[in-house]
């Protein structure tokens, strides 16, 4: 038996897979708490006396807190190590979930959702940083594939899980599920996660940068979530977007001058980092908007229950979750550029098939388009993560992971906002208060699907033109060395440390 962080653990090679299982389950719970809660809005409103605006805050404040604080979470992981930040985030997420499940009224639940989002913001970047540190060579791409599959399953399967839990045990069970799993997950993580390396980022915390980024991201995410309600010609909407742009511009100025910046801008010059964040934003915008509005069609026009709608969309959910780990395995053999380009092209092809939607479409008619779209999304998601973070140095892994998470959250909000505007143009009434005809709804959805297909094709072209491939299979002796290094990381009390003589050169190269 080998010791991990001073404790007895499982055989060395097996520790990595325990870590992978722990962080993937935690990531699944984080994302499910966004998508599953949305399906339980009607009973939450009835029980806690919340109107439509209050219910929107129950969903949006979690996303806002998650997005706004995720850069801070990544920075803390780089400063103090991913292990303590992940454990602290998991503990906070579990405690706030317990309190949310016991909420006596609406305002309490809204406030506790912000606490859940803060815990998620600590967990997300730290978890991804752990995977980057502990897996090398071909095993890293496979680990990121499992991670991506867990995220895809949560985003697409969350509504179905939320519907089942709400129908069988009540809406509070969505939050209490975290309480049932959280303590056991925390104990497994505490036992298996490696001890943190000595702090690589010292100096004062970039408070000014944190405030500027929080203000900018808050205004941007809030504006996008309210875009359909305000209308794209609303002065309020453009005031929010202008404020977001000004705050984010100020953030860039602050980061250029900060001694220890919250987001080191040299990361933007790393191969694939900037284009990878853009591809992550577009891919999640397409996936979430399509899933959201097809679910809307099934429930409002086809008369399906939430559970029936979730089951109808399972081909998209399951295929994406299954293909993502397989795509991770393919990365060393095929390369990220080919997989991203092919995946996004297939996504566009599936969306074009779905543009034929008519009021009479049911599960059978949706199936071909859902299968092709799910295959495409599954092929692209893992390679996007691998390409984006592949050239990031270890001491910036948490911050880089946080930036990618923030880009994807912005994509989620942007995709729903844009497609919501397109659908609303065909049916301008409040969809929650009136029943559109099938022609009205499917016409708007078809227009939105065409635009999403165009975005996916543009993203595929961008990937082929701009992604630098560094993930092709290495020679056998190099790959064996990487595997050996993986094992050695678990043979000592903590992760293998960088030789001091190498650090200055690495930091100079980073700049």
Descriptors for this entry?
2 strands, disordered N terminus, mainly alpha, two-stranded antiparallel ribbon, 1% strand, 511 residues, 77% helix, disordered C terminus
Mind explaining what this structure looks like?
- This protein starts with a strand and ends with a helix.
- 77% of the residues lie in helices and 1% in strands.
- The longest helix is centred in the N-terminal third of the chain and has 32 residues, at 138-169.
- Strand 1 (3-4) and strand 2 (7-8) form a beta hairpin.
- The protein has a two-stranded antiparallel sheet with strand order 1-2.
- The chain is globular and about 60 Å long.
- It is an all-alpha fold.
Quick take:
The protein is mostly helical.
Structural class comes to: mainly alpha
Percent of residues in helices comes to over 70%
Main β-sheet, spatial strand arrangement? 1-2
Q: Summarize the helix and strand pattern as letters.
A: EEHHHHHHHHHHHHHHHHHHH
Question: What overall form do the CA principal axes indicate?
Answer: globular
Beta-strand fraction estimate: under 5%
Described by strand count, sense and barrel closure, the largest sheet is: 2 strands, antiparallel
């Amino acid at each position: 038996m080998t010791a991990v962080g001073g404790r007895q653990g499982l055989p060395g090679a097996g520790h990595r897979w325990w870590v992978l299982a722990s962080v993937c389950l935690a990531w699944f719970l984080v994302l499910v708490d966004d998508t599953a809660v949305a399906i339980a809005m009607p009973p939450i409103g009835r029980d806690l006396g919340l109107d439509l605006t209050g219910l929107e805050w129950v969903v949006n404040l979690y996303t806002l807190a998650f997005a706004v604080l995720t850069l801070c979470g990544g920075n803390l992981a780089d400063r103090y190590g991913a292990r303590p930040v992940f454990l602290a985030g998991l503990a906070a997420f579990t405690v706030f979930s317990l309190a949310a499940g016991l909420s006596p009224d609406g305002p309490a639940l809204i406030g506790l959702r912000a606490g859940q989002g803060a815990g998620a913001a600590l967990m997300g970047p730290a978890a991804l940083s752990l995977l980057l540190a502990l897996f090398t060579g071909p095993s890293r791409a496979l680990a990121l594939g499992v991670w991506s599959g867990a995220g895809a399953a949560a985003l697409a399967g969350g509504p179905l899980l939320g519907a089942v839990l709400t129908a069988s045990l009540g809406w509070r069970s969505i939050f209490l599920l975290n309480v049932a799993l959280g303590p056991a997950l925390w104990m497994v993580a505490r036992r298996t996660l490696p001890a943190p390396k000595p702090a690589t980022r010292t100096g004062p915390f970039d408070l000014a940068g944190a405030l500027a980024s929080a203000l900018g991201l808050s205004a941007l995410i809030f504006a996008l979530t309210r875009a359909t309600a305000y209308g794209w010609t609303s002065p309020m909407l453009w005031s929010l977007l202008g404020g977001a742009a000004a705050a984010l511009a100020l953030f860039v100025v602050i980061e250029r001058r900060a001694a220890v910046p919250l987001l080191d801008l040299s990361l933007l010059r790393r191969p694939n980092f900037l284009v990878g964040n853009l591809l992550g934003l577009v891919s999640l915008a397409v996936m979430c908007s399509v899933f959201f509005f097809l679910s809307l069609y099934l429930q409002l026009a086809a008369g399906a229950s939430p559970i029936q709608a979730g089951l109808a969309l399972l081909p998209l959910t399951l295929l994406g979750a299954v293909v993502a780990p397989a795509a991770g395995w393919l990365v060393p053999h095929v390369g990220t550029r080919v997989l991203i380009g092919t995946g996004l092209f297939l996504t566009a092809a599936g969306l074009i098939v779905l543009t034929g939607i008519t009021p009479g479409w049911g599960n059978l008619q949706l199936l071909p388009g859902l299968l092709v779209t799910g295959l495409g999304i599954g092929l692209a998601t893992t390679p996007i993560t691998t390409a984006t973070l592949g050239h990031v140095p270890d001491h910036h892994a948490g911050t880089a992971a946080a930036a990618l998470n923030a880009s994807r959250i912005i994509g989620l909000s942007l995709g729903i906002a844009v497609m919501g505007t397109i659908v609303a143009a065909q049916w301008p009434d409040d969809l929650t208060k009136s029943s559109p005809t099938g022609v009205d709804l499917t016409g708007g959805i078809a227009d939105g699907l065409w635009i999403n297909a165009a975005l996916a094709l543009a993203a595929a072209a961008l990937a082929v033109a701009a992604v630098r491939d560094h993930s092709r299979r290495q020679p056998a002796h190099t790959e064996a060395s990487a595997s050996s290094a993986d094992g050695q990381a678990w043979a000592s009390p903590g992760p293998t440390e960088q030789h001091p003589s190498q650090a200055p050169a690495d930091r100079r190269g980073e700049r």
